[in-house]
Amino acid sequence: MLTKAHRVYHWDRRSNSIFSDRLEDGSDAVLARGIAAYRARIGDRLGAVRNAARRAVAALRPDRVEAVVDLLDAAATYEWPRGSLHAERRVGVFEAAARPVLDAQNRKRLLEATLGASPEADDEITAALYADYPEFHRLVDFPSWYTPGDLRAEYDLAQAQALLYDATAIVVEVRADFKHIVRYARLSRLLHRLERGPGGSYRLRFDGPNSVLRRTHAYGVDFAKFLAALVQAREWRLEASVALRGRGRPATFTLSCEDGLRSKIAPPALFDSALEETFAQKFGQVRDGWRILREGALLEAGRSLLVPDFLFRHEDGTEAILEIVGYWTPEYLADKFAKLALVREAHLIVAVRRAWALGRPVVPPWALPFRTAILLKDLMPRLNALRAPS
After folding, report:
1. Is 347:374 a contact under the CB 8 Å cutoff?
2. How far is the C-alpha of 99 from the C-alpha of 233, rounded, in Å?
3. Element (H, E) at 178
4. d(CA 124, CA 107)
5. Is 197 helix (H, G, I), strand (E, B) or coil?
6. CA 22/CA 47 separation, integer angstroms
7. Is residue 267 predicted with pLDDT exceeding 70?
């Protein structure tokens, strides 16, 4: 991620819209030179490496150079003395050097005794004494797989993230990958509220970093992490109000899955288990007027949000939810069923292992027992029974 100091954006005065900076296709050759500068400088000090990279990417617009170098630095691996021992040695050198008279011979002996080496050049002596300072960290590796395309993707995402540091309100409309999006909203510790949107979509309203009274910077970083996960999902749109200093009223910033941003976070798997995948393939897209949607709904269960495995929507408008419980423990089932009991206004079917059902004196009406696979001959009558009589 980038800091605000390296943020680059474009503002449209007429619409009061703001756009994060994106690198053009033709920038790849320049980015390749920046990557080559790092690979050629293995063993050099951080300051020297960054200066070489600045020269290599100087053909970029000046306001982009430091951001690109920062991202290259983040991909690199440096080494330096850890802990307080090096600082203590440095103080020891200064104390010994304060005693007269420190000639060349004594200086060499002192440095060897303290640091194990005695560089000849003054700048090398400084680097040895201050090796724990970032400027003098040594570059030891740069990933061989890293390409100009990777750098472009990181730059484009990081600039969008940096704009959201100053968001006052954020709305994300989602139509797919609900479980992925809600999971990362929680993991990122973001304050959010759920609303139903048009056409089966849902809106997540977030309190932006600038609406939080404390820990504003930390909250902005949390939202930036969430955006890195969001861009891997399908069918989403984000709209944020961004209050930038000197811009008067907040500007509107929009992003969607069609903008092509990507991150290193793995995209969500379509299915969580082979059991779900096998069932979906067996059911097909449409069967007897019922269309199947993967994670097509969010359920409110008290204070919890549940993302059931499948939503079925009949051509007559009837909807039903299927949650599959494959592997389980008594504690897991107790917690799961307690949450499901709080769900309202939903036709709910829970597929559970037959071993669980056999242990119950009365099988609940919402339970659909199965042995190794969910059978359509058991499911379809349940679904059709939920339809209103014609």
Report:
1. no
2. 66
3. helix 178-187
4. 14
5. coil
6. 27
7. no
What's the half-sphere exposure (Cβ side, CA atoms, 13 Å) at 38? 28
Radius of gyration for the chain, computed over Cα atoms and rounded to the nearest angstrom: 29
d(CA 45, CA 76): 12
Tokens 């909250």 sit at which residue?
A: 219
Q: Are 23 and 61 in contact (CB under 8 A)?
A: no
SS3 334: helix
**C-alpha to C-alpha distances, 302 to 126, 339, 342, 350, nearest whole angstrom:** 62, 7, 6, 18
CA-based angle 8:10:14, to the nearest 5? 160
The model's pLDDT over 237-250, given as tens digits with 9 standing for 90+, comes to: 999 988 877 667 88
List b or e across 76-85, with b for residues whose CB sees 16 or more CB atoms inside 10 angstroms. Answer: beeebbeeee
The token pair that represents 128 in the structure block: 């040895």
Distance CA 196, CA 173 (A): 9
The label of the residue with tokens 């809106």 reads 203
Q: Please provide residue 309's backbone torsions phi and psi, each rounded to the nearest 5 degrees.
A: -65, -40
Identify the CA nearest to 315 among candidates 284, 295, 286.
286
- What tokens were used for 144? 């061989």
**Residue 298 near residue 306, CB atoms below 8 Å:** yes
Taking CA atoms, 41 is separated from 36, 46, 75, 208, 229, in Å, by 9, 9, 14, 41, 33
pTM confidence score: 0.70
| Tokens of residue 18, six digits | 């703001």
Distance of alpha carbon 158 from its chain centroid, rounded?
11
User: pLDDT tens-digit profile of 166-216?
Assistant: 888 889 998 888 777 877 776 776 777 777 778 778 888 887 666 544 445
Give all domains of the chain, ordered by start, each with its CATH number: 7-79+141-152 (no CATH), 85-136 (no CATH), 165-259 (3.30.70), 274-385 (3.40.1350)
Mean pLDDT of 97-125: 68
CA 340 to chain centre: 29
Does the pLDDT value for residue 99 go beyond 80? no
116: left (phi over 0), alpha (psi -120 to 50) or beta: left
Token look-up 């609406």 returns: 211
